[in-house]
Amino acid sequence: MTLSQVQYQVMWTRLISVVEEQAQALVRTAFSTSVREAGDLSAGVYDAEGAMLAQAVTGTPGHVNAMADAVPHFIREIGRETMREGDVYLTNDPWMGTGHLHDITVVTPTFHKGALVGFFACTAHVVDIGGRGFGADGNSIYEEGLQLPIMRFADAGRVDQTLIRLIRANVREPDQLIGDLFALSTCNEIGQRRLVEMLTEFALPDLTEVAGFILGHSRDATLARIAALPQATATGHMRIDGYAAPVDLQVTVSFNGDHLLCDWTGTSGLDPKGINVPLVYTKAYACYALKCAIAPDIPNNAASLAPFSITAPADTIVNAVHPAPVALRHVIGHLVPDTIFAALDQLLPGVVPAEGAGCLCNFQLSLRPGAAAPAGARRSEVLTFNSGGAGARPALDGLSATAFPSGVMTMPVEATEHAGPIIVWRKELRPDSGGAGQFRGGLGQVMEVGARPGYRADFSAMFDRVDHPPRGRHGGADGAPTTVALDDGTRLHGKGRQPVPEGARVMLAFPGGAGYGDPAARDPAAVARDLALGYITADAARRSYGLTQPAIDAILHDAATPKG
Amino acid sequence: MTDRQIRLGADIGGTFTDVVLEVGSDRFSTKVLTTYAAPEEAIVTGLHQVCAKAGVAPDRIDQIIHGTTLATNALIERRGARTALITTDGFRDVIEMRSESRFEQYDLNLTLPLPLLARNHRHTLVERMDADGGVLIPLDRADIVALCDTLRQHDYQSIAVGLLHSYANPAHERLIREVLAAELPGVMVSLSSNVSPQMREYERFNTTVANAYIQPLIASYLHRLADRLAAEGADCPVFLMHSGGGIMDIATAADFPVRLVESGPAGGAVFAADIAARHGLDRVLSFDMGGTTAKICLIRDQTPKTARVFEVARSYRFKKGSGMPISIPVIDMVEIGAGGGSLAHVDALNQIRVGPESAGSEPGPACYGRGGTRPAVTDADLTLGKLDPATFAGGSIPLDSQASATALMTHLGDALGMDALESAWGLAEVVDETMANAARVHAVENGEDLSDYTMIAFGGAAPLHAARLCEKLGIRRCLIPPGAGVGSAIGFLRAPFSFEANRSVFMPLDAFDACTVRALFAEMQEEATAFVRSCDATAPITCDYKVFMRYKGQGWEIPVPLSREMAEAADRDAILARFEADYAALFGRTVQGMTAEITVWSVNAQTPTAPASPAAPVTAQPAPAPTGTRALFDAALGQSAEAAVYARATLTPGTHLPGPAAITEDETTIIVPASRHATALSDGCIALDSKDPS
């Protein structure tokens, strides 16, 4: 049958709504804090060939291409001819899924009138997957936790109890993990129901025609954007902390008329510890950065992602292969966009921001009762997500304490303190951390954390930009670096698990974004506001923007009276 | 007529102030332009108009019930008082740092909404509670006194106090209030443990700041209004509609002005709930579509669904996260930027997009002929034959069909290779699909299946789109009540006195303490009842009990309503069984091996709602002669057909007519597509039912 353009558009809109619904269901049922509070999840719908038709916009671009690539792996490994109604498959293979063992991807085949018509997939970051626990310290994937190859979780509706028992025996929070597996499979079920309803409403046997419409329009729109770019090539470079040694990220971006090429030749080799990145995750953040600059309004699907070609030599840190440790692949993954922006700024002036904090400033506290612990005290793992400042934009200040490129949310301190025996003593903006410029970098933040009385803690740091703060663009100043220390002044490492003595606090300062343009060109009213609100101190106003003492006094006086 | 109760409802909206006077069962209504500088003036004008229509003097009015967008607008337009926040040392920036995320992922030039209070108006004190309400750092009274010197220099009118974990132990907040009262007499004080005693500091602090910020403005307005009404002879008690769908007295409203936010739309939901009661409907989707937005609400057992938090002042295409959270008991509504004035364009993917940008009333849709050149939803409706160009707004605004066609072709048709009719179809389908998707997602979030729901549609644009929405959602019956243009103000007159008390107290069921639970419920019941009793000294008061539960480790709670017996007996097993049943209904299965826990407790006290007079059954009447016919496009069939046109005023109860048809009235037109037939009911509602018997 033939449908009108109008009806196809309605179905496309419907499918996008279905995956958003699917993602929402997961947020509401998941146990993992990172999913329910921070939005670290994905959901997508695929045609019968495994081509992704729509993906929910959730907290993390890190799943963008990974999700698009995942389902074809499942079709190959499971075998299309063995798929039955009621089947549910899963994996946490970093190379087939989304880059580390803590992300579990669940895929469900959808049947309509007995025929396989498509797939739903979703991914969530789980609390624990066994091994050493979430952190950078593994020397290979084998130390990072339980590996689940692509396999059946449910066979024609019957859940594999052997698998459940194996998982239970291998992880620290078995009830929560099993709860999350069921949440993932439920969220695919919700998507399936809607898809079947849609096919019935439009009297369609399958998704073939709709898929053709969605993918055709997406391909055309993306190619039109790429064709409008100058055909040129540029290289971006950024040095960051790494774990064992500093890491050089280098990318060459080429606009080639009908596709974009992003090649990572020149990037450092693998790190011995778990900050290496499977290529699928590098691709996700590279595509995200390119799409932000070139085609922000075109939804992600197989066709809109296809013209972006991302390559890297094997065994570079952005193309780690099995069995490299990859648990904290997000640290370097989150710095991929800033590297690409260094190249894009040469090709498309005035579009991309200065460098920012980049990677999320996450840490995990592993708490265990000490001698003086209250009765009933138990071990507990508390993971928090926090953000530094984003880089200044060509015509706007950077966003303070806001995640970029990741889109996840922080957790409320009150919720964190209910999750385990931790006290967050301070969590607020970090003055003077945004790089000076015509447009100022976003402020980072300071945090002070410790265990409740009676508990001992290990602190797993997952930070970068300790030795390599965000660099300013076009005359803007650098943002402030990360600092990590105990309250007695002892410096801690930016990465790795480190003990915290009982009663001690960890003092954290997260980086500010870098500035854009010459600070001398900054609007004096903006400088005055920054000073009045304490985004910059009097000292910085003098040093970076040349304010005189009388001017500073007048501004501070106004800020303390009704006019301010 | 002397012994009949006389009540006045007044709804101040963005454009119009609607005033409805009910004298017994007779109703008189008017619409007056809103007077921004002194909103009470429009109410007084409207009051005199309806009193004149009804032939009653203002001093005969027994009760005035009022709802207003004033609180919402003050937050959107940032027209609040000089306000400070006092918070825990280390947490000065909670309301600025928000969730540390971006609500739009791909926009490199995104800006976030500014906090209500700039950083130099956020002050801190050294003190700290832990998550259980234990004191980690005591608060020193001398520190508060010292801070008062600073506050005095700023000359604040209103102060919000938000301390960490104060929902668990409000002692420090109360100490601050005590010192402020002594040191800064006359300054208004809002405590987070009073305004919104719930866990999650950003939502609680922001709600408290919003309350403090609008309190001087609202308090002064409310007292002025009462004086002004009294001066006009209407010296009866004045009550306020609140966001939770009930009414409260002026003193409570002046203490908790943030509870007035969204009171107008809440009145619309109460209006729909009353229609639902009259028709004995337990599952209703209310659909209110006006000029710029549409609102959707689920009504179960004649009670609108409520929520504990919502977002106001969305700054970015109505996008979730682009506004500020207000955490109060509220009727749970989904607002979509889709109304008659919403404008359409073609995007980079050659897809039609509609809204949230709106043509407003000036210049209005292209067909108004007031200079609008871009196609709006109304232009599509006109082109599809849903509106009659000669009789729109009772003939007062002649519509220009050619202007609609030109706008559709210029902005959609030429780009997509479609004619004007197909462009109009596409535009209308996009807007209807958007609303249908919002309704579907909302239903899923609440574990509801819309196929056994009835829609109640009101607002100027709803009758044009309601039937198509029903087709998309699989809803078999839709009611279109009379008086839909002033639905919210009528709703005010149907609302009970009510107040909801909330507490955040964490209690895993494996550490369930029945004594504590009983005490907690008793305390909340007393608090809520006292508020209601202050409005009505004699009416019987009933309480609804609810807990919010989840499995330990989850972040989202689901509401679990409890019977009075379950609450009073503090019956752990019964509560668990109820939670498991509700959880399974929502998410398909319960979770094995996990402990359930209660996080939030709530008691809602209210007076009984006036019994709805049931709609009498009707005997079938043949349709009168149509006033004419016109070509009406049917979106489900994808083609036009000749449709009979009827005037709503001529349809006597029982009149039955098949689609395709159009039923016209002054404000709007009810579209009956080929898949439906229409029946006029005894109470003036028009029912649209699916012809398909299955």
Q: How many β-strands of chain A, per DSSP? A: 19
Mean pLDDT of chain A: 93
- Report the uncertain regions of chain B: none
- What is the total domain count of chain B? 5
By secondary-structure content and strand pairing, the structural class of chain B works out as: alpha+beta
User: How much strand of chain B?
Assistant: 25-35%
Which strand order spans the largest sheet of chain A, edge to edge or round the barrel?
2-1-5-4-3-6-7
Strand content of chain A: 15-25%
First-last Cα distance of chain A? 67 Å
Quickly count the helices of chain B.
17
Shape of chain B: globular
Broad CATH class of the largest domain in chain B: Alpha Beta
Q: Helicity of chain B, in percent?
A: 25-40%
Distance between the termini of chain B: 49 Å
Query: What is the averaged pLDDT score of chain B?
Result: 91
The largest β sheet of chain B comes out as: 9 strands, mixed
Protein name (chain A): N-methylhydantoinase B
Domain Hydantoinase B/oxoprolinase (chain A): 5-519
GO molecular function, one term (chain A): 5-oxoprolinase (ATP-hydrolyzing) activity
Region (Disordered) (chain A): 470-499
